[in-house]
């Protein structure tokens, strides 16, 4: 047995629309192992988010096989196998930061004492200790996104799925959150699937980079990163980093040429 947490074999997804079928994914084959940090990168509309939503059981493939923790994605969703972080923080403005993090725990029926302990723990994990009673509008965009990550971590799922969580943030804040996310990953040992449009972000964060083609989404390259797990930001200036970024760019270019 391998440590495979997510396995896709010959995965297809076609949407039926009024203008005819839209082929979103075609013959996607991928294995994600326990503890991997996997980034999905490709042009807009290439199926990155669609594939993430298939893993989460939010879209249903029309062909092939997909398992999450040995279960169907729908079974994994019901078993709360993953936390999901969207591009927008999606915090309810009428609830405090603590209240937003507690919401899924309330729905799942955790005791009040357990909720309080988990909220305290995840706020410390994302460096927001002391902000439990603040409201979203009192926090910066970067802090709101960290609160969103805390909410996804609160019920302690093994898998964290992140759909361009830093895409709307400025570069300085994004760099800081990239550093913090790597520290969080090291502390929690989660398996992370991360959608991004940024080549430097994908190379900096990942143990594995999945390069996808324009629609219909196909995998053009899977790059196992040789970079060490501890990565200061200035690693981006090293020849090793630049070589991986070049390979990602070549994979994106090849995908366009095949289209």
From the coordinates shown, what is the CATH architecture of the largest domain?
3-Layer(aba) Sandwich
Distance between the termini: 36 Å
Q: CATH superfamily name of the largest domain?
A: P-loop containing nucleotide triphosphate hydrolases
The chain-level mean pLDDT equals: 91
Helical content, roughly? 25-40%
DSSP, total strands: 9
| Topology as a string of helices (H) and strands (E) | EEEHEHEHHHEHEHEEH
Number of H/I helices: 8
**Can you tell me the residue ranges where pLDDT is under 50 for at least 5 consecutive residues?**
none
Radius of gyration: 18 Å
Short description:
The chain is of the alpha/beta class and 259 residues long.
Topology of helices and strands:
Blueprint lengths: L3 E14 L2 E14 L3 E5 L6 H8 L7 E6 L4 H6 L3 E4 L11 H12 L3 H14 L15 H13 L5 E5 L7 H18 L2 E6 L2 H7 L2 E5 L6 E6 L14 H20 L1
Parallel strand pairs: 3-7, 3-8, 5-6, 6-7
Antiparallel strand pairs: 1-2, 1-4, 8-9
């Amino acid at each position: 047995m391998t440590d495979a947490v997510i396995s896709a074999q010959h995965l297809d997804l076609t949407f039926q629309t009024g203008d005819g079928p839209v082929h979103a994914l075609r013959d996607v084959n991928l294995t994600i192992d326990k503890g991997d940090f996997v980034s999905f990168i490709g042009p807009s509309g290439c199926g990155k988010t669609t594939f993430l939503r298939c893993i989460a059981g939010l879209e249903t493939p029309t062909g092939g096989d997909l398992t999450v923790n040995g279960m169907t994605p729908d079974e994994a969703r019901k078993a709360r196998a993953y936390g999901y972080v969207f591009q927008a923080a999606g915090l309810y403005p009428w609830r405090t930061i603590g209240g937003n993090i507690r919401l899924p725990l309330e729905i799942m029926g955790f005791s009040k004492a357990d909720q309080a302990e988990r909220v305290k723990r995840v706020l410390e994990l994302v460096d927001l200790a002391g902000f439990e009673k603040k409201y979203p509008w009192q926090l910066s965009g970067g802090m709101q996104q960290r609160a969103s990550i805390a909410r996804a971590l609160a019920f302690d799922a093994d898998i964290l799925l992140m759909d361009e969580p830093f895409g709307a943030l400025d570069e300085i804040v994004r760099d800081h959150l990239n550093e913090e996310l790597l520290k969080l990953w090291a502390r929690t040992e989660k398996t992370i699937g991360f959608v991004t449009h940024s080549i430097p972000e994908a190379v900096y964060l990942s143990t594995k980079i999945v390069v996808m083609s324009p629609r219909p989404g196909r995998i053009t390259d899977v790059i196992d990163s040789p970079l060490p797990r501890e990565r200061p930001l200035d690693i981006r200036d090293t020849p090793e980093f630049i070589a991986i970024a070049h390979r990602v760019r070549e994979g994106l270019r090849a995908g366009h040429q095949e289209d």
